[in-house]
Structures are given as structure tokens and as C-alpha cells.
Design brief:
There is one protein chain. The protein has about 230 residues and is an alpha/beta fold. The protein folds into two domains: about 160 residues, SPOUT methyltransferase, trefoil knot domain (Alpha/beta knot), CATH 3.40.1280; about 60 residues, tRNA(m1g37)methyltransferase, domain 2 (Trp Operon Repressor, Chain A, Orthogonal Bundle), CATH 1.10.1270. The chain has six helices and nine strands. Helix 3 crosses helix 5. The longest helix has 19 residues. It binds S-adenosylmethionine. The site of S-adenosylmethionine (SAM) has 19 residues, from strand 5 and helix 5. S-adenosylmethionine (SAM) binds next to strand 5 and helix 5. One of its GO terms (biological process) is tRNA N1-guanine methylation. GO terms for molecular function: tRNA (guanine(37)-N1)-methyltransferase activity.
């Protein structure tokens, strides 16, 4: 069964890049199907409005629940996972991407403005798997870019999508820390040499060097990932 993904957004054009490269190939090979839906198609007023002022006051607008309910109802099944990108959500990570990759059906609800009326999450939570997910501790203008990031991270983990599944074994966040640095030809570039050990052909030494480099990089860039931290 291919992984089915439905994305609901007011900016369908944001998702054109999903036709390119690995994401495009994953769809062409039938491993994944992705459909993009315009939230405004599920409005009932002349202006196709999707937002209103917040109860309790405050700046900005909030997305109204009616079009969201209509749009989600049009695609939901009891197998669906509803993903609501929000900076207030749990942090999206490689283990979460792996879980999503093994799902049956993902629905992404791309918020804008100050976000989506919380009753949408409250309504679907007792009915299906609902996840409020953040891609990092910063605030984007909308959920579209966050959705693209989550789709790409998850789809590349769908079995069969990567030509060489070995690429997944030694990469950052699959290891205890982040990946070692990589080099390719030429052996010298602008006076900088590729580390000699990588040219040596000694697989044990190369593995040891890479493990050391991974620890050095993790200690420097992501000490929070070190075991016991
Ligand atoms: N008022 C919201 C808050 O402070 O939590 C921020 C709303 S933000 C301007 C608009 C939309 O962008 C959100 O509803 C969400 O869909 C998306 N968004 C912004 N930052 C995000 C992040 N770090 N991760 C996932 N989605 C994000």
C-alpha cells in the first residue's frame, strides 16, 4: 500500500517542488501519493474567507474551524494521522519522521495567520491520531514550509524510496550524534587536502576516523545529543 498524503493549504503553489527530485520519483514509482487541496474550496461565503478576529482580543487573525472541518472530512479515514504544524507543538525529529513514514495516511493542515481555531484539534483528537508538530524553535509565516520539511524527511524513509538504503544507516540523527564530514574529488582543492586516511583504503582506520569526527562535530555543534547530556 503506498503512503497517501493529503495537504490542505491556502497556498497550493507552495507544493510544486514536491514534483522534483526524490519526492517526484517517489510519486512516479507509486510508493507515495500526494494530493494538495485548496482550503478556500471548502468555504461557503462569497469572499471565500478562512479567518476571523480572535476571541479574547489580541493581534492578528485566527483560521475559522468550518472550512477546516469540511476539508478534513473530505479526506479523513479511521487510518489517518492529522498533522497540524505549529511552533507550539512537540518537536519533529528523525524518530517521528520514521513513524510517519510507516503510516497509512497523513493529512497536513497548514495554518496561517495566528493559527487554526483549536477546536479543530480537539474535534479530531478522540477520533484519529492527531499530532501538533513544530519543526524548530522559531516562527514561520505559515505551516507550508514546515509541511514540506516533514514530508521530505518522512518520504525518504519510506522503504524503496532511496535507491541505496545504506545511505540511511550512517547519517546524522540515525547515529548517536551527527554525521562525520564528507569529501569527494579532487584530492586537493584550493590548497586543502582530503584527509589522508580516506585515501588509504584501510576500512578499519576509516571507520575509526569517521567515528572520531562524528564525536568532535557533535561535541562542537550539538552537545545536547551526546549520550548522558
Ligand atoms: N501565533 C502562533 C504562535 O505563536 O504559536 C504562530 C503562528 S505562525 C505566524 C503561523 C503558522 O505558521 C502556524 O499556525 C503554523 O502552521 C506555522 N508555523 C510557524 N512556525 C512553525 C514551526 N516552528 N513549526 C511548524 N509550524 C510552524
Amino acid at each position: 500500500m503506498p503512503l497517501r498524503i493529503d495537504v490542505i493549504t491556502i497556498f497550493p503553489d507552495y507544493f510544486a517542488p514536491l514534483q522534483l527530485s526524490l519526492m517526484g520519483k517517489a510519486q512516479q514509482s507509486g510508493l507515495v501519493t500526494i494530493a494538495i487541496h485548496d482550503l478556500r474550496e471548502f468555504t461557503s461565503d462569497r469572499h471565500r474567507s478562512v479567518d476571523d478576529t480572535p476571541y479574547g482580543g489580541g493581534a492578528g487573525m485566527v483560521m475559522t474551524p468550518e472550512p477546516w472541518g469540511q476539508a478534513i472530512d473530505a479526506v479523513v479515514t479511521d487510518q489517518s494521522t492529522l498533522i497540524v504544524p505549529t511552533p507550539a507543538g512537540k518537536l519533529f525529529s528523525q524518530p517521528v519522521a520514521a513513524e510517519l513514514a510507516h503510516s497509512t495516511h497523513l493529512i497536513f493542515a497548514c495554518g496561517r495567520y495566528e493559527g487554526i481555531d483549536q477546536r479543530v484539534v480537539e474535534y479530531y483528537r478522540p477520533r484519529i491520531d492527531v499530532r501538533e508538530l513544530s519543526i524548530g524553535d522559531y516562527v514561520l509565516a505559515g505551516g507550508d514550509v514546515a509541511t514540506l520539511a516533514m514530508i521530505e524527511a518522512s518520504v525518504r524513509l519510506v522503504p524503496g524510496v532511496l535507491g541505496n538504503p545504506e545511505s540511511l544507516v550512517e547519517e546524522s540523527h540515525q547515529l548517536p550524534g551527527v554525521e562525520y564530514p564528507s569529501y569527494t574529488k579532487p584530492p586537493t582543492w584550493r590548497g586543502l587536502d582530503v584527509p589522508e586516511v580516506l585515501l588509504s583504503g584501510h576500512h578499519d582506520q576509516i571507520a575509526r576516523w569517521r567515528a572520531e569526527q562524528s564525536t568532535i562535530r557533535t561535541t562542537h555543534n550539538r552537545p545536547d545529543l551526546l549520550p548522558g547530556s
